[in-house]
Amino acid sequence: MDTAVTPEVRNTLLELEGDPSFATRNRLAMRDVGEGTRLLPLAWTLGWLDIRLRYRGSMLGPLWLTLSTGIMVGALGYLYAGIFHTDINSYLPFLALSLVLWGFLASVVSESCSAFTESEGIVRAVRMPFFLFAARLLIRNVLVLAHNVLVIAVVYAVFRVWPGRHGLLAVPGLLLWGLDSLALVLMLGTFCARFRDILPIVGSVMQIAFFMSPVIWMPEQLGRGQALLPFNPFFDMLEIVRAPLLGTLPAEGIWLGAMLYSIALWVLAWSLFTRARGRIAFWI
After folding, report:
1. Residue 10 counted as domain residue
2. Which end of the chain has less Cβ packing within 10 Å, N or C?
3. pLDDT at 259
4. What is the pLDDT of residue 166?
């Protein structure tokens, strides 16, 4: 019997035993990402299947979420426009865009915590790269966001809002969102696979962040406190997409802050993922 151990098996065994070599762990993590990237068609299929299963038996499917979002935008728009003494013509497009974009961000953050644990059956049965599940989660939420864009389109048409050429500047922001979403899955998915009680903590943090970020209130309503908003990472990430779609340009400091937060997120995510990737299958 051939008892030779292949390099791949040896590297995996070293990783499980706590190999201190960063190069080995980094190489295995890079291979995971490469294999996951090659399986993007499978990730698309799984993401689409998630949407179909979630709304199985429903007449409108994901459009129920779009309808509920539209009703909430209309109800909150007229209510808070009166409370804040704000012009409805400028506030409602802002609110519609903010709620749809925040819905995407909040969903990605909360679902990242269970990205690996919800795929326990696949992980235990078939050797699959973990990056595949990160791509699956991102695709699933992008599909939901695409449905909710209809709410923005209707509000923009009613109030005759057009971002013009500035709207194209939202594309780099959306690409950065995609990269950060993958980093969040690798980080929170790994961390929550080991510590299951992190999910409710993340949910509470997101609730606080919702009220502390300019989603239902406009930044200029803070007055002098507006200068502190760039220290809120959710504000920077929202503004690099929201401002162009509202026809304005985000300040250079906001883009700089978003880039710095993204780099910090990827450093933390990659450090955790490379160190714990070999143990995830045992934790879940």
Report:
1. no
2. N
3. 93
4. 84
Torsion of CA 127, 131, 137, 138, to 10 degrees: -150
> For the whole model, what pTM was predicted?
0.86
Mean local confidence (pLDDT), 206-225: 88
Whether the predicted pLDDT of 240 surpasses 90: yes
Residue 90 in domain: yes
- The answer as to whether 172 is a domain residue is yes
Query: Does the pLDDT at position 9 exceed 50?
Result: no
Residue 115 within a domain: yes
Transcribe the chain into DSSP letters: ---PPPHHHHHHHHHHTT---HHHHHHHHHHHHHHHHHTHHHHHHHHHHHHHHHTTT-SSTTHHHHHHHHHHHHHHHHHHHHHTT--HHHHHHHHHHHHHHHHHHHHHHHHHTTTTGGGHHHHHHS---HHHHHHHHHHHHHHHHHHHHHHHHHHHHHTT---GGGGGGHHHHHHHHHHHHHHHHHHHHHHHHH-TTHHHHHHHHHHHHHHHSTTSS-GGGGGGGGGGGGGSHHHHHHHHHHHHHTT----HHHHHHHHHHHHHHHHHHHHHHHHHGGGHHHH-
Domain residues for the domain of 226 are 22-283
For the ranges 4-18, 98-112, 210-224, the maximum mean pLDDT occurs at 98-112
Residue 19 has a pLDDT of 53
Total count of domains within the chain: 1
From residue 48, alpha-carbon distances to 40, 114, 203, 247, 276 in Å are 12, 18, 25, 32, 29
The pLDDT of residue 141 is: 92
